[in-house]
């Protein structure tokens, strides 16, 4: 599903449109317990786990890099997002993608990578926020702040619920994220559970209750049924 580039972040996204900007500082999370749990409570997941094997999702402590990845992936196709992400990597090489390195380049350079005006504006907002709060990501990563992360991220203009949820999955390793507004999740749920139409948020929420506290893993396997997922060692 596409959205106007000038629109604020939509609640309907597709995570497959996001692509890794950096694979450095990877923290591999074990998923065997969650896989066994899901396979035991839901035959659909038993089938998906047997089909795709162990979950390959990993988290990255390069928080700025992950956030850039998710901003790139907002509101555009998988192919376009991966192309833009590759150009961003090429732009900053041979260094890592850090706020300081990214800020060295002009907005014209960002535009040349394919970043739209709203996304350039959001990224500028992120840089300004980090300049004012240099310890922002450190505070986000504090387990004591877990319940406040979403609200803290959404104080940055251009970052909405979807991006905050993706940060929970790909940066902070929250095991129970269930992004109701994600288009890829909605379509995969429809297909895997053989529904006649895309389920509404209330249906998705109700059906997911037995899968707590492993709904991130459930999300991953549903995404996997549709193909590419960031930070999952998949081509």
TrEMBL record:
Its EC number is 3.2.2.21. GO terms for biological process: base-excision repair, AP site formation; DNA alkylation repair. GO terms for cellular component: protein-DNA complex. GO terms for molecular function: alkylated DNA binding; DNA-3-methyladenine glycosylase activity; DNA-7-methylguanine glycosylase activity. Keywords: DNA damage, DNA repair. It holds the Pfam family HhH-GPD. It catalyses: Hydrolysis of alkylated DNA, releasing 3-methyladenine, 3-methylguanine, 7-methylguanine and 7-methyladenine. Residues 72-227 form the HhH-GPD domain. PANTHER family: DNA-3-METHYLADENINE GLYCOSYLASE. This is DNA-3-methyladenine glycosylase II.
């Amino acid at each position: 599903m596409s959205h106007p580039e000038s629109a604020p972040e939509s609640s309907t996204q597709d995570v497959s449109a996001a692509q890794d900007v950096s694979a450095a500082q990877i923290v591999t999370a074990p998923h065997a317990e969650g896989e066994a749990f899901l396979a035991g409570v839901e035959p659909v997941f038993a089938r998906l786990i047997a089909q795709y094997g162990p979950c390959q999702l990993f988290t990255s402590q390069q928080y700025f890099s992950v956030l850039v990845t998710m901003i790139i992936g907002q509101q555009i196709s998988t192919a376009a997002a991966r192309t833009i992400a590759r150009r961003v990597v090429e732009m900053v090489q041979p260094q890592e993608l850090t706020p300081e390195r990214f800020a060295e380049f002009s907005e014209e350079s960002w535009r040349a990578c394919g970043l739209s005006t709203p996304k350039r504006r959001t990224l500028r907002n992120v840089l300004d926020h980090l300049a004012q709060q240099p310890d922002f990501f450190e505070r986000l990563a504090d387990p004591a702040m877990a319940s406040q992360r979403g609200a803290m991220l959404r104080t940055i203009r251009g970052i909405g619920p979807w991006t905050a949820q993706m940060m929970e999955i790909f940066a902070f390793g929250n095991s129970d994220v269930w992004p109701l507004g994600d288009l890829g999740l909605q379509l995969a749920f429809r297909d895997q559970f053989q529904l006649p139409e895309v389920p509404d948020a209330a249906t998705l929420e109700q059906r997911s209750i037995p899968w707590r506290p492993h709904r991130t893993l459930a999300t991953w396997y549903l995404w996997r049924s549709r193909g590419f997922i960031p930070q999952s060692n998949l081509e």
